[in-house]
Amino acid sequence: MKRILLVIAIIAGLVSCANDKAQQAAHNHNHQHSESCTHDHDHDHDHNHDHNHDHQHSDACDHNHEHATHDHNHDHEHNHDAHSHEGHDHAHSSQLTAHSHDHGDDAITFPVDQQKKIDFEVVEVVSEPLYQVIRTSAQIVPSQESEKILTATTSGIVTFENKDLVHGVDVKSGQVLFSIDNEEMADDNLSTRREEIEADYEKAKTEFIRKQILAEDKIISESELADAKAEFVKAKKHYDNMRKNYPEGKTLHRATISGSISEILVPNNSYVEAGQAIMTLAQNDRLYLRADVQSKYYPVLKDIKTANVKTNDGIVYSLKELGGRLLSYGKTTDINNPLIPVTFEVKNNGALIPGSFVEVFITAESDKMGVMLPNSAIVEEMGIYCVFVQTCVDSFEKRIITKGVTDGSKTQILKGVKAGERVVSKGAVNVKLAQGSAALDPHAGHVH
After folding, report:
1. CA 2 to chain centroid
2. With contact defined as beta carbons under 8 Å apart, do 263 and 117 qualify?
3. The pTM is what?
4. Where is average pLDDT lowest: 101-115, 166-180, 237-251, 415-429?
5. pLDDT one-digit tens code per residue, 111-164
6. Quick one: fold of 133-143+284-368?
7. Domain boundaries, the chain
8. Cβ atoms of 40 and 73 closer than 8 Å
9. 387 C-beta neighbours (distance < 10 Å), count
């Protein structure tokens, strides 16, 4: 009986001891591993677990386990659900912080460093007043004040002073351009006229000197001396003009303005009549743009605000950039020409060639509002027009749009974007190319 009681007491003691050790392991779990314990720790000890799972790796291992070397892959595996770390690579967490937004499957990534390498610009879409646009062509012609026509002052044979006088040659005011020789002409012979002018000059000179002497002796009055002086001054002016412009029986014709030769109307060494046009000079610093518009636009011509000019090289200039202004528009039409002329005056910036034609977008005021975008923001893809809307600093979305009227610089957007959105206005082609790269590599620009 004593043995049975002794066995029961020993078993009770062992059970109590085992419970104490289990509780201690559950609450403290202080593993003190010696150098001989080669634990393979797959978890990060920096996590702050609620059950104070503090691993203290000391030099002395206090465990009396039967296997000194074991894999420390605890069956409980530190339930990481509370920390959302199931099978997650911690090296990727920093990238999520810096790139936490979701671009979506259709997003186009164009990195900021690439944007800085090109002429790149994003503008905000705004609702602005629309204009009625009249698209037509216009001819460039010299203005009246900048064009001069040289005519023959006498009949005779015209001779150009320089064989290099051709269309476009620059000339200076006062430069001799051509002469007219009528020495052999029977009528209105210049030599005869020259002799008459010389005779009149000598006579007036002699008479003025004689009357000066008489006036000193008080023989004639002061009024008679004044009349003689006036006749002498007049004769001398004709004489000096003849010597300057009609030497040796020729009439010299000089440039009246500094500019260039825009037209030569007669061949060299040909006969011309007095009053006949010989040559046209133009300064070309001020030009006219003469456009013809259909009569249906007559009611809106009074509301013309401005115009844009598109040259043959595709560059668009505003009327303000050309220092221009609206001169007039026609109030009537002709049977032979039912179109209405509209004339603008502009400064020549070097890109406008007199006589050539340019495309003009005449804009008139309207009370309508709408969205206008720069033409550089619109990209064509196989007949479909689209723009690229910025969704974040380096992410863009392609939008198909419906175009309206254009003034040559901007185009009305009827459908596809709305006010408040941001659209690529410069560098849209580069974003399109980035779209093609993304199609080949869906992870382009993202390092995961």
Report:
1. 111
2. no
3. 0.53
4. 237-251
5. 999 999 999 999 999 988 888 889 999 999 888 878 899 999 888 889 998 888
6. Elongation Factor Tu (Ef-tu); domain 3 (2.40.30)
7. 2-93, 108-128+369-440, 133-143+284-368, 153-275
8. yes
9. 24
